[in-house]
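Interim report to the steering committee. The following record documents the input for Aminotransferase class I/classII large domain-containing protein (85 residues).
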Amino acid sequence: MESRTYFCKKLSEMNIKYYESYANFILIKVRNNRTFVDFLESKNIFIRDYSHILQNHCRITIGTKKQMKKVIDSIRRYVEKVSNI
């Protein structure tokens, strides 16, 4: 639960829209979904593109706090690179 709280807080700080769930994942909304997924894959972070269900959405499984810090750091780098998520 601590890693989920941490992850959601960091997403909010970056103004990234997300949807809470009781499952082990969170859906987030991003522009250029495929580019985002590819960027994270290049950092060895594998998420699911949910565009086939919800346009411009990805599913990110919640892991340990250490894992989620790595995900947040990579998302932050992506946001800095594209300047508009």
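Residues 52 and 58 are 10 Å apart (CA to CA). The committee is asked to note this result when reviewing the revised timeline.
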